[in-house]
Specification:
The complex is a heterodimer of chains A (255) and B (254).
Chain A lengths: L2 H6 L10 E3 L3 H27 L2 E2 L13 E2 L15 H28 L2 H5 L9 H12 L14 H24 L2 H6 L1 H6 L3 H29 L1 H10 L1 E3 L8 H5 L1
Antiparallel strand pairs in A: 1-4, 2-3
Chain B lengths: L1 H29 L1 H21 L29 H8 L6 E6 L5 E4 H6 L3 E8 L5 E10 H8 L7 E9 L5 E7 H4 L5 E6 L2 E2 L9 E3 L12 E7 L12 H6 L8
Parallel strand pairs in B: 1-10
Antiparallel strand pairs in B: 1-2, 3-4, 4-7, 5-6, 5-10, 7-8, 7-9
Classes of the chains: A mainly alpha (255), B alpha+beta (254).
């Protein structure tokens, strides 16, 4: 291998057009489990929101207290079930909460041991340097997706989003959800204090759910823009075709 | 060009998928087998809580100044019928709390006698299944004292609370709890709310407080407590009014 070639592949030997193994089985399984779980949790959660569409801060909050947010009523096409049935929505929500919560726990343990976290989900100081971040933001705005060997790893904004969801949003959703259970409050009273009381925990639960919905929309949008066929193949089979290097002459890619 | 077609097909597929998802979820939600599957989560939550909880682990109690300015009511505001109206007029002077079923010594305790019994005071948070919560002070007789007095059978597994307020289906409201909650120190039959006699809308003259569960378990207008070995055969058989008519969980600790 010439030094020129090594430079162009970042020392990985991977070039645009190569089909590479990108997502391990644990990641793929957890991803698709979450597709189902998050959709059901969000949609049944909107039915639960419709039961009392007001959010408060503090230990308590009911109709005579001041709400910080009057939540809009969510229409049937956004909710599970599509008509108002709080009991059924709760059954969906509290059933799917199990695979959602234990799925995250198992995924985190597996990813710790197979070094997915250390290798792919750790942000270095170099990556967080303002100049690098700014370049990544510009690339996103211009829809310049990584090519060549750079497409082997998550880009910086992508990493920040994944780290924020996996280590921030999802644990907060699970813990605030648990702290809304009066039975669980007796098991671990300190958890509710951590969130500033039940009305606050409920507000945080809904805010985090909203942020997760935003993440899902952004994620889907980027999959569509980055090439849905290749992205879907990557998440289903694990194999992903490295996009051809946009700076490379065409002849080189074809070769 | 082929990229465009793929994209359009994908968007159409997603839209169709979303529509199919919705109607599919509605159909699944009506399927008895699938409802049974969803119901396994209630059993799992119930068992997990009982496994993790100390039997006497208390619900959080608050300071007087942490109480809600107004404690709202929910459900019945005024029980229908002439019987309740007469009791209300008489200040519940001859209201009796009946304790029967699987007990050695059935009881019919006048309200005045209940009020003279040792009482527990607790400032707790009431969490409604709808999502609101309110903090108030309750005063009442620990249920355990009443069950000891009646000599509850070790074979009795549940306590059923029969209420004086008839519901839309013609049957009275009722609720039930297990022996663990029945023996819990905070499970009381409350006769005062915020140091005043229990208002009608909050269940006068007696309401159950079962602090580690949601609001609909806290039966109001309680006139009779029945110790039973099984909930089958009592009204709809699911252990409570909302459980029978709308499919709410019997274990409402979550």
């Amino acid at each position: 291998m010439t030094s020129e070639r090594r430079e162009e592949t970042g020392g990985t030997g991977v070039r645009g057009g190569d089909l590479v193994f990108r997502h391990r089985l644990a990641t793929r399984l957890w991803h698709w489990l979450n597709v189902v779980a998050v959709v059901v949790l969000l949609m049944s959660g909107l039915t639960i929101s419709n039961a009392h569409p007001f959010l408060y801060w503090g230990e308590y909050g009911a109709n005579f207290d001041r709400a910080w947010l009057d939540v809009p009523r969510f229409p049937g096409w956004m909710t599970i079930p599509s008509y108002y049935d709080l009991a059924l929505a709760r059954r969906w929500h509290l059933f799917v909460a199990w695979p959602f919560a234990f799925g995250l726990l198992i995924y985190l343990l597996v990813s710790l041991f197979n070094r997915h976290i250390a290798r792919d989900l750790t942000l270095s100081a170099r990556e967080l340097a303002p100049s690098r971040l700014w370049r990544d933001i510009k690339n996103h705005v211009r829809l310049n997706f990584p090519t060549g060997h750079e497409a082997l790893s998550y880009n910086i904004l992508q990493k920040i989003a994944y780290v924020g969801v996996i280590f921030g949003l999802l644990p907060i959703l699970i813990l605030t959800g648990l702290s809304l259970s009066p039975g669980f409050n007796a098991v671990w009273p300190g958890l509710l204090d951590l969130f500033g009381g039940r009305a606050s925990a409920r507000s945080l639960h809904f805010i985090s759910a909203g942020l997760l919905a935003l993440f899902a929309v952004g994620h889907l949008l980027l999959v569509l823009l980055a090439g849905p066929y290749n992205q879907m193949r990557g998440m289903i089979t694990g194999r992903y075709r490295i996009p051809p290097d946009r700076d490379a002459p065409r002849a080189k890619v074809a070769a | 060009m082929s990229g465009l077609v793929t994209r359009r097909a994908l968007v159409a597929g997603l839209a169709a998928g979303a529509g199919g998802l919705l109607s599919g979820c509605d159909e699944l939600g009506q399927d008895p087998e699938f409802r049974r599957l969803l119901g396994t989560a209630e059993q799992a939550n119930y068992r997990l809580h009982r496994l993790l909880q100390n039997r006497a682990a208390l619900a959080e109690e608050f300071a007087p100044q942490q109480r809600s300015p107004t404690f709202r009511h929910n459900g019945t505001a005024m029980p229908a019928g002439t019987d309740y109206a007469r009791h209300l007029r008489d200040g519940f002077a001859d209201w009796r709390l009946v304790i029967d079923g699987m007990v050695a010594r059935p009881q019919a305790i006048p309200l005045a006698e209940l009020r003279a019994m040792p009482a527990r005071q607790q400032i707790t948070r009431h969490d409604c299944v709808e999502g609101w919560s309110a903090i108030a002070k309750w005063t009442g007789v620990p249920l355990k004292l009443l069950l000891d007095r009646a000599g509850i059978s070790p074979q009795a597994k549940f306590l059923v609370f029969h209420c004086a307020d008839a519901q839309s289906n013609g049957a009275p409201y009722y609720e039930s709890i297990d022996r663990v909650d029945a023996a819990h120190p905070q499970t009381v039959l409350a006769w005062a709310l915020n140091d005043r006699p229990l208002p009608v809308q909050n269940g006068a003259p007696l309401r159950l407080r079962v602090e580690r569960q949601l609001g609909y378990k806290h039966a109001k207008y309680v006139g009779r407590i029945e110790a039973v070995a099984s909930l089958a055969g009592i009204y709809g058989g699911r252990g409570g009014f909302w459980e029978d008519v709308a499919g709410y969980e019997w274990y409402a600790g979550i």
